[in-house]
Design goal:
This protein is α/β, with parallel strands linked by helices. The chain contains ten helices and eight strands. β2 (about 110-115), α3 and β3 form a beta-alpha-beta unit. α2 packs parallel to α3 (about 120-140). The longest helix is centred in the N-terminal third of the chain and has 68 residues, at about 1-70.
Length: about 325
Amino acid sequence: MSDEWKAPEKAESGDDKSWKLLEKTLLAGVQEQRRARRWGIFFKLLTFTYLLLMLALFSPLMDMEKSATRGANYTALIEVHGVIADKEPASADNIVSSLRAAFEDPKVKGVILRINSPGGSPVQSGYVYDEIRRLRGLHPDIKLYAVISDLGASGAYYIASAADQIYADKASLVGSIGVTAAGYGFVGAMEKLGVERRTYTSGEHKSFLDPFQPQKADETQFWQGVLDTTHRQFIASVKQGRGDRLKDKEHPELFSGLVWSGEQALPLGLIDGLGSASLVARDVIGEKELVDFTVEESPFDRFSKKLGASVAEKLALYMGFQGPTLR
């Protein structure tokens, strides 16, 4: 009996050894794959860091090479492209930094703001407007010209109105002197879905822009007052910048938010002439060489911004939680 029972034990022991060997082999394979992945990530990070360092090292050298090829005098060019907003390429910080560098350069004989923008933040536009007027006062011998390409609307026109003169193409879109604050209302959809909104606030009107709650007449009136105040500020700045050139008395619709082509905008006093940036540099300023003074983000900054973009901020914009916009 004892011999009959020992035989299965030996067989079972052999199976255990086989399974353990197989398990060790599989674990070794998994560990090897993990090590390979780790080394792959390491070398990718090393390559990425190397490329960033090369960009950081060679960018100043490229700028020095460009400086060496510049003529005795030139026209400064500053691009205002895209939405005018904080942390965007056309932010007030970037535009103002570009303007200061251009006005302080002794070789600059004139400055051109080349604009292609639908507008944006009234605060950012106001910062740029005020800085243009300040710099023009400090450097009266250097003229600043705004040149609108495809679009110079709302906040972009706000900025342009601070220039000595404004030029545009005959087909450019110019104007849109107005303010908007758009959102959505989901109350009806929530009622159909049977969803109840629960909001807790410590202020009576704290959630008045909540798109999931019904509008209240007094809050709507209040918000309209905020937009009207911003619109009045916009109009006052445009009038200050354009002066008697603006035909607003004959055409009060100039401040209604409408846009006009460059050809239409000229007799309305919204612009001073038709032409491109190269034409203004050559025929108006008298220095045809254009040197780009636009502040650009480094590749590292662009990567960091994309990596750290706030999802909550984007959702807030899409859901209607945003302030007035000059568009």
